[in-house]
Amino acid sequence: MDVAKAVMRTVSIDLIRPGTSLRRQFPENEIDELAASIREKGMLQPVLVRPRGEAFELIAGERRWRAAQRAGLREIPVIVRPEVTDTEAIEIALIENLQREDLSPIAEAEAYHKLIAATGCSQQDIAKIIGKTESYVSHSMRLLKLPEPVQRRIEAGGLSARHGRLLVAAPNPTALAAEVVRRGLNTLQTEALVQKHAATRRRTSRTRGAATAAFESELSAQIGLRVTLRQKRRGDGTLTVYFSDAAQLDYVVAALRGAPPVIATVPLVASANAVAG
């Protein structure tokens, strides 16, 4: 970027169009407060734009631009940077966003994600741009793996980014997040809660797996056909009986209808399937 080409001037606010916004939303109260300040003191800081034909595309300063519109300004000060590329425009918007003290951890993670998607850069590249470590960027982006309800809790300040990173690995992040907020757990307590639920799930899975395997083996021995059982937590599920030809299908149907089966004539197989139960 050649900063020497930058020009400061005043332009009609109607000639400015939004560019690539890295923020998900602009709270109405935030815009109202800034608009009130602009009405009283004027717009003290220019926005950054680049020319697009007869108009201008906003690079940085969208919050100020929106507030100026709400304040009723017809013209605003801008810094025109004609040399800025698409990649550089996103980088500048990202850096401006990250310099905001009230930027939420989710908004920060989304900014990194959008930069990677738009430019193809790596987490290491982003770390160099913002002066952070690559692990910092990686940990931040992990928050985007959380379900939407948990992300909203983090944005609202009910959970910290550290809480969120712990919940990413939880068996049920949404339910545990609600429990963490309800009980007011700190990060150490949250980590213990996640580990407890993960251990319980592993034990339950092993127990259910052994019991299911035993049931399948016993039933297969009784009817002479391979079966599999898929049972859900609430008790419902699917029992599958496998057959390989019409004779075996007739055998299954007869057994279900209560007719006397001839088990000895039906070999144990494992091919195409029929579902019973």
Give an overview of the whole structure.
The chain has 277 residues and is an alpha/beta fold. It folds into 3 domains: 101 residues, Conserved hypothetical protein from pyrococcus furiosus pfu- 392566-001, ParB domain; 64 residues; 53 residues, no CATH class. Helix content is 52%, strand content 15%.
* Secondary-structure-derived class: alpha/beta
Which parts are unreliable, with pLDDT below 50 for 5 consecutive residues or more?
A: 262-277
Work out the oligomeric state of the chains in this entry.
single chain
If classified by CATH, what would the architecture of the largest domain be? Alpha-Beta Complex
The largest β sheet comes out as:
5 strands, mixed
Helical run tally:
11
Shape: elongated
Helix percent reads 40-55%
First-residue to last-residue Cα separation: 69 Å
In the sheet with the most strands, the strands line up as: 1-5-3-4-2
How many discrete domains? 3
Mean pLDDT: 82
Query: How much β-strand is present in the residues?
Result: 5-15%
What's the CATH class of the largest domain, please?
Answer: Alpha Beta
Count of strand segments: 8
What are the defining features of this structure?
five-stranded mixed β-sheet, single chain, alpha/beta, 15% strand, 277 residues, disordered C terminus, 3 domains
Task: Provide a short characterization of the protein structure.
This protein is α/β, with parallel strands linked by helices and 277 residues long. It contains eleven helices and eight strands. The protein folds into three domains: 3-103, Alpha-Beta Complex (Conserved hypothetical protein from pyrococcus furiosus pfu- 392566-001, ParB domain); 146-209; 224-276, no CATH class.
